[in-house]
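Exam review. A common question shows you a sequence with its structure tokens and asks you to describe the fold in words. Practice with the pair below. Do the first one on your own.
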Amino acid sequence: MKKITSEWINKAKKDLLVAQREMREEEPVYDAVCFHSQQAVEKYLKAFLQENEIYFEKTHDLEILGEKCKNILPEIEKIKEKLIKLSIYSVEVRYPGDWNNKKRGRRIIGNGYNSRKNYEKIF
């Protein structure tokens, strides 16, 4: 595995750790849980692209990153809708509004853990 790939994976794991810790708090900040979970998925995708020497621009759009993965990882097409929905947590949650709650936080962090499991299967 390339050094840069390991760095992306390490960052993704740390984002999941932050989300997990926050969920255990008495009063979790669900915006942070969703943001860090989205960031973990984004970084796992970028790790996959980096390892396979596929260029990607600076973006938080998981649909764009997923599209770049699909030639090597066609099964990513099955989760395209989840990637699209998850992308909103990269930017929008940092602005006012009622974005997140416990149910959504658990679902989004679950997406992060699923990404980690899938990534571990690939490598």
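Now try the second one, then compare your answer with the model answer below.
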Amino acid sequence: MATASTETVRLRDGRALEFGQYGDPNGLPVIYFHGFMGSLHQAARADSAAREHGLRLIAPNRPGVGRSTAFRYRQITDIVGDIDQLTRALRVREYALVGISGGCPFALACAHRLSGAARLAAVVSGLGPLAGGFLRQMTRLVQLVLTLSRHCPPLARWMLQKRIRDYRECPAAFADGIIGAWCSADVDIVSDPKLQEVYLADLEAVLTHGAGAQALVWEMQLYFRWGFRLEDLPAATPVLFWHGNDDNFVPPSMTRHMASRVAHSEAIFLPGGHFLAARIVGDVMARVGHALRSPGSLPRGAAVEPLGGQEMKGPALAPALGIG
């Protein structure tokens, strides 16, 4: 599995933004937003498929991850300025957006604010708005840490600092403990040694080279402060959703909710857990590549229809806390 040689750009306020690139260096650009407690290394699992479909993946680390300077955003939409500066530095004028799990709101924020450049957004296992009872549908551990990050940040920091100490004492045992709480579909996926390598690289970027517990708490607080409404996403940037029906970290109901509120979108629900992206990465890259080259294939409807046991919106698709 490819390992990116990472680079940094200097933002206007002096912060460093680290990013890696995967796939076809001459391909159509795609900005890849990693999940929570993850890093740019997650894009490595899409490297081969991106090459096959002529896509250039640009994967930034969010503040406090790897060599990206720690910084407290006020709301999710604050990332837009960073991504705009990154794409300008790389002389990229148009691109697609891909958001995995906790990267979903950041991808959608860019779809909302950068619709002139963002051609489409693709979201897998996406974390949606936490209002409306969705937080209560998540695992108890995830509920606890998210709630503490919002209402008692010092306690959330203390819990995460303890987890970081556990990781540094024995990374393998720490990873095994997390994986033991996953559903069987996710355990099967991470049993692949190449994917284990990506997962451990993620943990290393966040828990060893990153800014630690404070940066993680800041990001979790953002999940309650998006700064835009799903209904206001522009028609010029359609959204493609995928979600695993067996996901026990981010409930599939979040994607159903998001798809029902984004006018130009389509959604597909498949057997699988939270790490569905690792299994369907070829389908996702194929769909994104086709959509970039054939804009007429993008969704323009809002009806939800059952199809072969899958719920879909719009035309059919070809298919640490370890939140993802």
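Model answer, second protein: Residues 302-310, 313-323 have pLDDT under 50 and may be disordered. Residues 7-313 form a domain with the Rossmann fold fold (CATH 3.40.50.1820). Full marks require stating both points clearly.
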